[in-house]
Amino acid sequence: MLSPYRAVLSPCIGVCTIADDGLCGGCHRTTSEIARWSQMDDNERLRLMESVLPERESRRG
Q1: Quick one: which of 2, 4, 46, 55 has the fewest CB in 10 Å?
Q2: How many structural domains are present in the chain?
Q3: Which residue range(s) make up the domain with 25?
Q4: pLDDT tens across 4-28, in order?
Q5: 3-state secondary structure 20-51
């Protein structure tokens, strides 16, 4: 179980453009993931940061 004091910061790097594939050009999140970020719990945020986003970035490569 994660500590309640662990904070997962946003992957936003200030390059906020949505590409033709529906992903942000900077952070590789979908618009729904961006909109829901503040409602996600740390486990969901960590899963995105450690698994989903790196995979998306490598596919765009």
Answers
A1: 4
A2: 1
A3: 16-61
A4: 666 788 999 999 999 999 999 999 9
A5: CCCEECCCCCEHHHHHHHHHCCHHHHHHHHHH
